[in-house]
Input
Amino acid sequence: MRHRTFLAFILPSALAMLLFIALPIVSVAVQSLYVEPPKVLVTVQSCTPFACTDDVQVDERATAELRKKHPLGGFNGLGTYTDRAHLAFGEIAGILGQNTGFADTLGRIYNLPFYRALAFTLAYTFIVTPLAIMLGFSIALAVNAVPRAIKGPVIFVSLLPMIITPLIGSLMVYWMINSEGIIGATLQWLFDDPNLYLKASPTLTWIVIFLYGVWTNGPFSFIVFYAGLQTMPLDTLESAMIDGASRWERIRFVVIPHMSPLVTFVALVQLMDNFRVFEPIVGFNSQASATSLSYFIFSDLNGQFSQLFGSAAATSMLTIAGVVILLIPVLIRTWREFNRKAA
Amino acid sequence: MKEERVPVAFRRPLPLAVACNAFVILWLLVAAFPFLWTVWGSFKVEGDFFSRRSFWDAVFGIKTIVQTGHPFTLDGYRGAWVVNALWRPVINTAIVTTCVTVISLTFGTLGGYALARSGHRYALWLLIAALVFRAMPHITLVSGYLLPFFELNLWGILPTAIIVLVAINQPFTLWMLHSFFLGIPKDLDESAMIDGCSRLRAFQLVVIPVMWPGVVTTGLFSFLLAYNDFAVTSMLLSQDNQTMVPRIASFLGSIEQTGKVMYAVAAVVSATVPLFILVMFFQRQIVSGLTAGAVKG
Output
């Protein structure tokens, strides 16, 4: 294809991506170096018949005007990255300086807002992904064994947790797990503990969100693995049988190796998707005990009184750095594949 | 006999077959129960669906009978659709999803076709860039949009959200249609070009008639992305232009105090219906779309 024709065909798509994905990343990078102008404070004297007091108030009009003049705010360099709400170098140095035992040190670092979000995001990504893959693989093996007639309905039902709007899915589960919902109330009754409640325990919140993640991620691996099972080389399986391999050995040495490229594919896709976990935090209303990097950005942007663009941008840049690190293996793989095809 | 057709390697002893079936049934319950329960509960009053006593209240609708005289009530739906005017966000959602799907597919087919037919190095670089863009968390992009959109006065309107969703959707659409077009033999359009067609004309006459299966599959995923989105639509649309999902989210804050949770439950069920229908009619395409990426690598 000639360069000109290629350009003409790709232009709308490339332009859309350039304007609304590449430029925003630049915009985030720039914004992260700035910080909102401080509020304009005025001292107001208010007098009662007995005494006069000086009150410091925010001059809303002057603040708005200042914001309008400098929408980006003042230049802050890397200050936002290192402040208490983000990488918190100062605080970390302080915590590491006074050695108070390993667990306590970890606990204190976890109390810093950015590290809290990071810890949950990483835990979610690396716990939910393998569990969902295992669930999907088991379902695929089991479904492969059921009568043909019910496979269609099984796949239909299995698709539901995956295609459901994440916010809506998490709300449904949240209502059930609520202390007055079917699961929550039944658990309280089973353990005879009226204080057993999602909100009461951060650990419980984490577990519930992880389970929700497995529920909604499992079907994707199931569908992919099930398709993979349909292309299973029967000869290999049968010769393994003749060689005396047990059922488990056949799965371990024939089925799993056949599926391993699919496992890599599913794992990479789901790692990327799980790293941006966001809606469950909103749906489960769990920001107090479990919050993710995406939610951290969202709450900065969604501030009731002022939107912290600088802070949101700095978190975004750090998140993007995380995504790129996760992506490196995928990129290498794509690169090799393309070269192999071209060769 | 039916048993004869099952390959030897797939034959299972009875206990294993039973275990497999039991596991499948268990999974079906886990997968479907939240939906069934929420749909059932949406026809009850709050005292039943969120019962302090026992979930049997919700099953039999005890308080619902006391309050409305009938075990099923449409109060939740009335509250969501009539009192809270849910039809307005529904119309917005319809506009956004239709536009996003149509525009994404138009851009995507042209781009995907070009990528599939170009053997040049830069096609690879574009695909890799698309892969990186695909992985960007949407909310990080949103934090890049907000300030410029405020400045340019583009914030809050539907076209902005549409074009942003189209762009966010492009990487996936490009990859999917690229691999689909790779499967259409090159000879097809090249022979048309030898017969004197321009590239565009060949695309029109020869490729478009055979591309619909791939386009439908990709379109389903574009639709799902636009429909399911929360990050972009909740941040970029003003109150009046809100689509359904952010509307439901903002519902929650305002409703929970006033004891109108059932409105939200009814709204959630209403928003699930189109997805249900979609899977019912397009199950085969969704499955083939999910596996396409995996098989092609």
Remarks:
- Chain B has a mean pLDDT of 88.
- Chain B has three domains: 1-36, 42-73, 81-296.
- Chain B has 15 helices and no strands.
